Amino acid sequence: MAMHTGEPTAADREPGREEPPDTGAGAGAAVETGERHRLTALQGLAALSLDAMASVAYGPESIVLVLAAAGAYGLGFTLPVTLAIAALLAVLVASYRQVIAAFPDGGGSYAVAKRHLGRRTSLVAAASLILDYVLNVAVSVTAGVAALTSAFPELYGERVWTCLGVLVLVTAVNLRGIVESAKAFLVPSAVFVGSILTMVAVGLFRDGPVSTASAAGHASALGEGATTVGALLLLKAFAAGCSALTGVEAVANAVPSFRVPAARRAQRTEVALGALLGVMLIGLSILIGRFHLQPVEGVTVLAQLADASFGHNLAFYVVQFATMVLLALAANTSFGGLPVLMGLLARDNHLPHVFALKADRQVHRHGVVWLALVSALLLVFSGGDTNTLVPLFATGVFVGFTICQVGMVRHWSLERPARWRAKAVLGGFGALLTGVSAVVVTATKFTEGAWLIVVTLPLLVLAFEKVHRTYGQIGERLELGRVPQPPQRSRSLVVVPVSGLSLLTCRALTTARSLGDEVLAVTVTHPAPEDRRAAEALRRDWELWNPGIELVELSSPRRSPGRPVSGYVRELTEQRPDTQVTVLIPETEPERLWQRILQNQRGSVVAHAVRRDTDAVICRLRFRVTANPR
What we know:
By secondary structure, this protein is an alpha/beta fold. It has 24 helices and 5 strands. A 5-stranded parallel β-sheet has the order 3-2-1-4-5, sandwiched between helices. Strand 4 (579-589), helix 24 and strand 5 form a beta-alpha-beta unit. Helix 8 (119-151) runs antiparallel to helix 15 (314-329) and helix 23 packs parallel to helix 24. The longest helix has 58 residues, at 420-477. The protein is elongated and about 105 Å long.
């Protein structure tokens, strides 16, 4: 089987790049079918924005929990900190709108850095995005299950299995295609956004909380006696709240997943995401101050706000249920963005080429499955606990934000379109803000787990480099990019391993004669008495059959046929350097899938040994066993 090592073929062409149009009717039907499996702006909001929108469930809470160390006085700074995060959000949205327009093939910060900041920097951006996407899946699923266990405490002991069940559900939906996932998650997204906006609107007309039943009986997490708030505490609160900004880049990474005009639809989705997220964050922060809310153990801030605005009634449970569902499904953002990014990395020889392959529904299935497996390991490692994973979150994404915007400054300074100076200033300002945020987030969360990201990120970059060097070495060995010599015919010798006489043996030798100038049958014998008797019986039967092909007996102390056959083939290639040696392995193909467990797998053992030890060509002849042979 040929190894894919060089330029991408039609099967794994660059994601998002259209092939030259065919004028036939078949081409038009294919394009129409392909568009049906791409996103509209509204579907993009459901498929790629869940991470960012769901972060309103834990972003404000993260701020409150930090400021609570300074007591009630510290909680008064919740709104100013949130406004600072909202301002950073506005800058990021404006910047990523520019990225979408300038890089419509997707890839976000990786694509920007690759063109303008060099390969190494682009790999740092890609590594940061991969870490962020993987952590997003784990954090989203655990946060969603945490909301569920808050409502039903009896499920707390089964939270790991519940997390894995949710992960399997999201993975299965995404394997059917990104459009299918968008359709499935559109209603939960609308219910969540509608319930949060309604809660904010109703809460603004309340003079005080309608109910505090959800927090009753729970210990307060409020600090005592503080009358001042230091800069370090505010920086820690800002860093904690920045977890709400993760997912903003997902739309820019997955532009090829949108319908034509893809860039324009992606820009609309980015703006809608920024507007909704900003309104919800600011609105919730206003309610926290209006109701003088205090964090308590075991109850989320969002649950207390719903209780205060609606009362402990059906509306309260609707908000909780919508939050639980959307948090669990927010992992879908990663499933929409990461496989596309991995496809771009594979196209550039930084990941195995298998990640660039697409299924019929525009799905990078290998990327989806890989993301699910790594996320499952994180869920098991964390024990399904959100607080174990949150300190790792947001560190990597701000590195990507900063690299992306520095690259855009260089992009505008080189391209110099209309109003390029204003665009470059916006990118530079955004780079400054996100760069400072990256330092603050990493420094304040370093001892809580951010050190793991600092270590993992360069290891990922080294892995990308190793893969790239390996593909380069294979390409040199195969002389890719050069015109090869004309093909020449060489003498062919076909070796057929046999263990007895049957119709399969006859078919194999017949096929071998049609393939080669010379055919040899080989059988492996063992010195044990029963094996010697079987070998003598085969020799007698072979002489009586007289197929006109020599039977070579390979005596071996090993019962496995792999090493003896591969050793004999290696001797033949050394003795006949100008002869092409082919090993034809006959195997039966059962009618039923379960019947494969009845096979002895000798063919696979021989094929593995020959492939490992020799350069011979391997052919595997399948003989289909049916109930009613013709």
